[in-house]
């Protein structure tokens, strides 16, 4: 068999990922934004970030019905906002290749989790299967070659993970409903849950979709556009190599983030431009000092199938289940093509927060999603015309451009 030049490139990429897998480590997040890079520091866990910022913390675990052990972080209050019974619950869900650290990394007064706590909410943050906080299963080993651990896409995150974490949160707090906010894949997985398990709609007081991703025909990210046309070849090569995890958190990434992307490094702008190429350019909203911490937190690990599933959506122009190929589709779905997600079954009140310069959640695609929802709160554009996909969680002024509005809407639905 003769491989094309394109396939050789993919083979090289897969080999790099294989090498990176060998150095996966546990401690992934260094200092918080604004403190300046300290390469000699020992990287603390997300939990340490929260406690060091002066907020109360609880760590909870829940096991999904298919055996994944997920970690959730709860921030029930702070010395300025004491823990009391009966607080309304806000549940936050991260995006692809990320973790719950997104919601605290910007620090007090800026990060969404802290702003919600300060506004009187009981805040819970989920972590999807496969990221640095949720790399356990009752049977499968994530580090084993050809492991079944990584046999999932964001469909399973929506179908299994979110229901398990939401049920646990409600049972623990004694509430019957909660507010939900998700970024990127945190919105995709929500729409999977709410459309395929519609009973969960009644457990949602309000849902806030930050950079919502469902339909993807009009995305502008060169990363996805270059990758999508030959996604089936990449999937085949990765499977042949026994590589199931895409961009795992690893020591090389952490050291690279500290050395190459720190203040006064000549490569810092290269690091910034890598982030911009993924989600769109908005230089004024990226805290350069924060880049090493961001790269230590992300990538936080994901399955190859999560990326493949998104590429399939771009290629098909539809929001539908994973395409396993003609034969397996017939076995699994009873049709040669995977079924569309029945978005008409999403009855929870949903607010879609979008921006003009988001290269992954294009305005046209967000509007198409809005047209499919039966109980939309509305479409809400971020006023900064340069606001990009990653600004929704990492933007310097996300607190004033976005989060204050999100909290205002949550308050209306209490």
Query: Looking at the structure, what is the overall shape?
Result: globular
Round the Cα radius of gyration to an integer and report it: 20 Å
Structural class: alpha/beta
How large is the share of residues in beta strands?
A: 5-15%
Tally of alpha and pi helices: 15
State the major sheet. Answer: 9 strands, mixed
Description:
The protein has 15 helices and 11 strands. Residues about 1-45 have low confidence and may be disordered. It is globular, with a radius of gyration of 20 Å. The longest helix has 20 residues, at about 155-175. By secondary structure, it is of the alpha/beta class. The strands form 2 sheets. Strands 1, 2, 3, 4, 5, 6, 7, 10 and 11 form a 9-stranded mixed sheet that branches. Strand 3 (about 90-95), helix 3 and strand 4 (about 120-125) form a beta-alpha-beta unit.
């Amino acid at each position: 068999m003769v491989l094309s030049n394109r396939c050789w490139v993919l083979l090289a990429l897969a080999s790099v990922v294989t090498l990176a897998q060998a150095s996966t480590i546990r401690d992934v997040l260094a200092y918080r934004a604004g403190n300046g890079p300290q390469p000699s520091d020992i990287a603390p866990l997300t939990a340490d970030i929260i406690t060091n910022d002066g907020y109360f913390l609880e760590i909870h675990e829940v096991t999904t019905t298919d055996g994944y052990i997920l970690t959730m972080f709860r921030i029930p209050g702070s010395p300025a906002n004491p823990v009391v019974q009966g607080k309304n619950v806000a549940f936050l869900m991260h995006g692809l290749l990320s973790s719950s650290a997104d919601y605290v990394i910007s620090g007090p007064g800026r990060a969404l989790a802290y702003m919600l706590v300060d506004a009187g909410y009981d805040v819970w943050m989920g972590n999807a299967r496969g990221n640095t906080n949720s790399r356990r299963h009752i049977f499968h080993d994530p580090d084993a070659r050809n492991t079944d651990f990584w046999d999932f896409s964001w469909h399973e995150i929506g179908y299994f993970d979110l229901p398990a974490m939401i049920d646990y949160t409600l049972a623990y707090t004694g509430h019957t409903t909660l507010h939900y906010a998700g970024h990127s894949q945190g919105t995709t997985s929500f729409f999977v849950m709410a459309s395929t398990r519609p009973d969960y709609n009644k457990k949602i007081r309000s849902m806030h979709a930050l950079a919502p991703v469902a339909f993807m025909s009009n995305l502008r990210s060169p990363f996805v556009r270059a990758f999508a046309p030959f996604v089936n070849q990449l999937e085949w090569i990765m499977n042949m190599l026994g590589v199931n995890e895409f961009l795992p958190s690893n020591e090389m990434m952490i050291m690279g983030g500290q050395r190459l992307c720190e203040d006064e490094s000549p490569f810092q702008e290269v690091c910034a431009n890598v982030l911009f190429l993924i989600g769109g350019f908005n230089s004024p909203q990226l805290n350069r000092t924060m880049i090493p911490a961001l790269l230590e937190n992300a990538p936080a690990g994901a399955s190859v199938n999560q990326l493949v599933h998104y590429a399939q959506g771009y290629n098909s122009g539809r929001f539908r289940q994973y395409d396993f190929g003609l034969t397996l589709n017939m076995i699994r779905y009873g049709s040669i093509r995977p079924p569309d997600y029945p978005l008409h079954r999403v009855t929870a009140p949903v607010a879609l927060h979008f921006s003009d310069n988001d290269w992954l959640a294009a305005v046209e695609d967000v509007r198409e999603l809005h047209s499919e929802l039966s109980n939309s709160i509305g479409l809400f554009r971020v006023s900064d015309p340069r606001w990009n996909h990653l600004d929704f969680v990492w933007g310097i002024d996300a607190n004033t451009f976005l989060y204050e509005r999100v909290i205002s809407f949550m308050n209306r639905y209490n």
